[in-house]
Specification:
The complex is a heterodimer of chains A (286) and B (424). By secondary structure, chain A is mostly helical. Chain A contains twelve helices and two strands; from the N terminus they run αββααααααααααα. The longest helix of chain A has 33 residues. Chain A is globular and about 75 Å long. Chain B has 424 residues and is α/β, with parallel strands linked by helices. Chain B contains 19 helices and twelve strands. In chain B, 53% of the residues are buried. The chains are: A mainly alpha (286), B alpha/beta (424). Chain A: Keywords: Cell membrane, Membrane, Transmembrane, Transmembrane helix, Transport. Chain A: It is a multi-pass membrane protein.
Chain lengths: 286, 424
């Protein structure tokens, strides 16, 4: 190694040391943990215990199903909504644009615990404003927290409310990078606004939308706070338990670190697989 | 996952500066909320007897005590205080994963005579293989708390409610006479308290008393689940989480609540305006002459193995938990129900309580203590509980032909999750 590099590495050493201790080592260690029975004292190497349980565990499939439902329904709805919001924000007709931009972005700034508490109050079955509105237009009140389907819808609403504006701002930045003369030329050729959106805006936005989709997929795979706080730790009866919650429950409520590690590795593998699929579906045609 | 550990141990390291090491007779305790306040209320009496021992109670909050104790035990006991509060249903998790983290109290003076001062159901989780890891503190003998005025308006005498069918019939009357109220509430969203209470009353639980097999699909548990669905379908119990139950109590929308007796303090402090309007009666049974006693919740105190003042720590536990003076002080100040069997003979326990319409609720409630059947938490409690709750939700939604099929499925899932066998 040339001495120049050696000095550089010496300066990097403190960071690399911390990186190795707190990132690399835990990643390896939890991989090893996943092959151990951590419910006996002392821990025993029992490679098939946790992975065998994972394959057969209804709680795991339930959490996987819940996570995928959110992935399949919430992510596309949110991205579509964010794109529409971004296009509206980009309209030259809009007055007070910074105000709207801030308003759409604000939910991200609000603390998770605070907004979860407000959502719980708003959707409370007996006293909440949402059920007041629903009954005032003649429908039966919904018991948001003890009906699994309603609870899942509530989680999707909450996550969409929180993250749609954030994605809209990213997509807006993408919109503004599309050169105006493309639209000018299209207008001269008498291409309708709708056609312009479908054939100019969307194709040019594709990398940005893809970026948002990958971010949202990873976020959904790790979804934790909303079902933990709003639906009371994934209730009712696991109806909104996500993979992240199952991991937490196994690791920190049941103190079963081995099984929690196996779940953690499964989540990471799924996130990578789904992101790759995402990139492959949206690849540039050769 | 690693981050949580990291932050827990960092805050632990910060905390570790204060306790233990300072003086030879200081004792530090980790506890939470009213439990911590109750411990503090015993200090005056304790220091009269032992003026040289300085006791400091840290109120860290329930989850924090669990997380910090867990992290500290994982780190070989580093940074633990002298005494840790442990909830009974979580207790076996600690003893089975970290047996070296706690001191055997029998070596310090927790003799078999002292152990016999407590009911068996409180001791099952605290003693393993002849080692006593903790001493019983408070318990949660179950009772029904009811609104006297609502019941009276409907002409219902609680003394006539002997079984759950009586409860359903009474509920229909009470709800008809008091529009806008519900007979009782259960947390079908995030808890399993009704099942655990009634099943325990009937001598059934997730696991056998020796903790070696799964008993959730035994006939008594099946009958319990059937009856809960019957009550839910009859509309006399509705779903409400902890906070919503309190809101309903204050707003006058619930005619009764069933819980461990520690709920007394919650009602009394949550709805001070309703003094004189509430009363207590024993929980109904499944059959005409069936049992009426069950337990829900309760804690205990353990001494850490790293404590440098084990003798002083034991002296405090001995005073606070094994004497009427200590236990009744905590009952008086913060409504913590003594596990100590002799507490029922204390004059305070026999006094009528003004908030409860002059009823002698404590002697009524404490009288059930010796009749409570042990219900083993086991290290697998949280797994079993999550599986039960999922099964319950699915059963209520019509996902199983009957309660037997539901609990058979739950038992099979618990078998997969824990590796324990089904009971014969």
């Amino acid at each position: 190694m040339p001495s120049r590099n050696r000095v550089a590495y010496a300066f990097l050493a403190p960071y690399l040391l911390i990186f190795a201790t707190f990132w690399v080592w835990p990643i390896i260690s939890s991989f090893l943990l996943s092959f151990q029975n951590t419910r006996v004292n002392p821990w025993r190497f029992q490679p098939s215990l946790n992975w065998g349980r994972l394959v057969a565990d209804p709680a795991f499939y339930n959490a996987l199903y819940n996570t995928l439902i959110i992935l399949v329904i919430q992510v596309p709805v949110m991205i579509a909504l964010a794109t529409v919001m971004a296009v509206l924000l980009n309209s030259p007709l809009l007055k007070a644009r910074p105000l709207y931009r801030f308003a759409f972005f604000a939910p991200v700034v609000v603390g998770e615990v605070a907004y979860a508490a407000v959502f719980r109050l708003m959707f409370s079955a007996d006293f909440g404003i949402i059920n007041k509105l629903i009954t005032s237009i003649g429908f039966a009140p919904v018991s948001w927290f003890d009906n699994a389907t309603a609870a899942m819808i509530l989680i999707i609403i909450a996550v969409t409310w929180r993250w749609a504006g954030y994605n809209a701002i990213i997509i807006l930045a993408g919109l503004q990078s599309i050169p105006g003369d493309v639209y000018e030329a299209a207008t001269l050729d008498r291409v309708s606004k709708r056609q312009q959106f479908l054939h100019i805006t969307l194709p040019l936005l594709k990398p940005i939308i893809l970026f948002c989709a990958v971010l949202s997929v990873i976020g959904t795979m790790q979804l934790f706070t909303e079902p933990f706080l709003i639906t009371n730790r994934g209730g009712p009866g696991g109806g909104t338990e996500t993979l992240g919650l199952l991991l937490y429950r196994q690791g920190f409520t049941s103190l079963n670190f081995g099984y929690a590690s196996a779940i953690a590795y499964t989540i990471a593998a799924l996130a990578i697989a789904i992101s790759l699929l995402n990139l492959w579906v949206a690849r540039e045609p050769k | 996952m690693c981050f949580k550990f990291l932050s827990a141990s960092v805050s632990l390291a910060l905390l570790a500066v204060t306790p233990a090491s300072a003086q030879s007779d200081t004792v530090t305790i980790w506890s939470w909320n009213v439990a911590a306040s109750a411990l503090k209320s015993t200090l005056e009496g304790f220091n009269k007897k032992y003026p040289d021992i300085k006791v400091t109670v840290h109120d860290l909050g329930n989850d924090q005590v669990f997380d910090k104790t867990l992290a500290a035990c994982a780190a070989g006991g580093d940074g633990l205080p002298d005494i840790v509060t442990v909830e009974n249903f979580e207790a076996e998790l600690f003893w089975s994963r970290f047996p070296d983290c706690f001191t055997d109290l029998t070596a310090l003076g927790y003799t078999s005579e002292k152990q016999a001062l407590f009911p068996d159901f409180k001791r099952t989780e605290l003693e393993m293989d002849g080692i006593a890891y903790a001493a019983p503190w408070d318990s949660g003998p179950v009772a029904v708390f009811y609104r006297r005025d609502f019941y009276e308006k409907a002409g219902v005498d609680p003394a006539t409610i002997k079984n759950w069918d009586d409860f359903i019939a009474a509920g229909k009357k009470v709800m008809a006479a008091n529009p806008g109220t519900v007979m009782a509430q259960a947390d079908f969203n995030g808890d399993s308290e009704w099942f655990r209470m009634i099943a325990n009353e009937q001598g059934c639980g997730y696991f056998s008393t020796d903790g070696q097999s799964i008993t959730i699909n035994q006939p008594a548990c099946v009958a319990t689940l059937e009856k809960i669905k019957e009550m839910k379908d009859a509309g006399i119990i509705t779903a409400a989480i902890w906070d919503e139950k309190i809101q309903a109590n204050t707003a006058g929308k619930a005619a009764s609540q069933m819980y461990g007796a520690w709920y007394e303090g919650t009602i009394r402090s949550g709805s001070p305006d309703l003094s004189g309007k509430w009363g207590v009666y024993p929980m109904p049974s499944l059959t005409e002459d069936g049992p009426h006693a069950a337990n829900l919740g309760g804690s205990s105190l353990a001494i850490s193995s790293v404590s440098e003042n084990k003798e002083a720590a034991w002296k405090f536990i001995d005073y606070a938990l094994t004497t009427n003076e200590g236990q009744v002080t905590m009952l008086k100040s913060f409504g913590l129900v003594p596990s100590l069997l002799s507490a029922i003979d204390d004059p305070f326990v026999k006094e009528p309580q003004p908030y409860w319409g002059g009823q002698t609720i404590w002697s009524d409630i404490l009288a059930t203590l010796p009749k409570i059947v042990p219900s083993r938490g086991t290290p697998f409690q949280s797994d079993a509980d999550a599986i039960y709750m999922a099964t319950q939700t699915k059963y209520f939604a019509g996902g199983y032909p009957d309660a037997k099929a539901a609990l058979d499925d739950a038992a099979k899932q618990i078998e997969t999750a824990t590796g324990l066998p089904l009971a014969e």
